[in-house]
Automatic annotation (TrEMBL), chains A, B:
This is GntR family transcriptional regulator. Pfam families: FCD, GntR. Keywords: DNA-binding, Transcription, Transcription regulation. GO terms for molecular function: DNA binding; DNA-binding transcription factor activity. Transmembrane segments: none annotated. PROSITE patterns: HTH_GNTR. PANTHER family: HTH-TYPE TRANSCRIPTIONAL REPRESSOR NANR (PTHR43537:SF53), TRANSCRIPTIONAL REGULATOR, GNTR FAMILY (PTHR43537). Residues 6-73 form the HTH gntR-type domain.
DNA sequence: TGCAAGTAAATTGTATCCAATTGACGTAAA
DNA sequence: TTTACGTCAATTGGATACAATTTACTTGCA
């Protein structure tokens, strides 16, 4: 994601992004430019650029003259993001069944071992690793554009789970990750897709069923849309 | 695409984007911040923000301390973008066969009439309209995230055609657009997808077969990747 | 007490300024 | 002639200053 060029801007961008993934920054939280800037020891200019990038990814929303906030995806948005995620990830599986780099399975198995290593600890790390498994799958297709889009929807799903799901402990069942690898390796594309589809359905279902009550802010902002300028 | 909030930044962003779509700004062209700023009567700050957004979409690339350039997708990138475009647009068709708003067909037919109105003139307008047909299809799914991704790959395809295709006159055959609408309206999803797939294949093929010789810059930039910092 | 208006504080929008880096040109030495 | 070096112009990287806008508080009036 980060191209490692604009060091300062990219550094702030990466930090904010990671903080959002790990749900340290929660949906609806304000992100005042100078507060963030002081925190990282940079000027507002840098923070602004980072926020622009995050807004493009749908991770933050900005209101004119009001500032930036961590995004609070509505239920409709959540539905749409999940739909796109399933489209993309099913296709990732289909591609991987046709072509996968030599080291692919090693990388995947190794990643799952890492996930198992932190099993039980419902900390931010396990949340991040679960998402990164799906990004790794997409990267193995060799299609960088596809991988970028998967990365975007995965992280937005993380935001959705943070808003709507009761427990984030196991957004992804590690077992199912293993099953997906097995299915790809067996070359049975249809079965692999079925498992992935079921896996994502489970994640989505957890968000739908166990959704928390809306926060005050998101409730009011919903009504506010009808008044606003 | 543009949210109409940050008026100045968004205005510059929209103008640059449109200029790239219509191939007035050609791949490899420089986009110096103050030149662009003077042109539009705004300061570099505004232009910078617009360029950041365009870079996120893959329409421009920036080199540290060197500036921004209109992107020159490599052949590999072009291949990847087309692959993602087919994935997304096939799925758009599949969705539209299941659900399409009441006014959908009217909007589509109306758009095709516009395209026919400028037929023959190989100007920038026909190029833009051809792309917007595909974006309109995506928007009719009601899935904004999906529509945004389609919009991104469509415009990047416009960049690719500008680089590699001999004639941009008819990136899309208007007849085929009508056929696609017919197929969706008939409810035959498989046929509709087949037509869309063929349609995109034709566009892609035109880029592959009639590709122009690489520019010096894009050739050297390819080798340069092995040296760079 | 409750509401309204006005004022002050906080925050973003934009422009400008200085520093750092890059590329080009020209000059000199081998 | 070619290469190496040094200087200069052009451009971006980043910080700061000022203007505009919004929000919150306070004051005054009914």
């Amino acid at each position: 994601m980060s191209d490692g060029k604009n060091t300062l801007t990219t550094a702030v961008y990466d930090l904010l992004r990671k903080a959002i993934i790990e749900q340290a920054l929660k949906p609806g939280m304000r992100l005042p430019e100078d507060t963030v800037g002081e925190q990282f020891g940079v000027s507002r200019t840098i923070v602004r650029h980072a926020l622009v990038r995050l807004e493009n990814e749908g991770l933050v929303v900005t209101q004119r003259n009001r500032g930036a906030f961590v995004a609070e995806p509505s239920k409709e948005e959540a539905q749409q993001i999940f739909e796109v995620r399933r489209i993309l990830e099913n296709e990732v599986i289909r591609i991987l069944c046709n072509r996968i780099p030599d080291t692919g399975y090693d990388q995947l198995r190794s990643h799952v071992r890492n996930e198992e290593g932190v099993r039980g600890k419902d900390g931010p790390v396990s949340i991040r690793l679960a998402g990164e498994f799906h990004v790794l799958l997409a990267e193995l297709t060799g299609n960088e554009i596809l991988a970028r889009y998967v990365s975007e929807v995965v992280i937005r799903c993380s935001l959705i789970m943070s808003l709507y799901a009761r427990s984030h402990s196991s957004d992804c069942a590690v077992d199912e990750h293993s099953q997906i690898i097995d299915a790809i390796q067996s070359g049975d594309a249809e079965r692999a897709i079925a498992i992935m589809d079921h896996h994502l359905g489970a994640v989505q279902g957890r968000a739908e069923l166990a959704r928390q009550p809306d926060s005050i802010r998101s409730i009011l902002s919903h009504y506010g849309k009808e008044l606003a300028q």
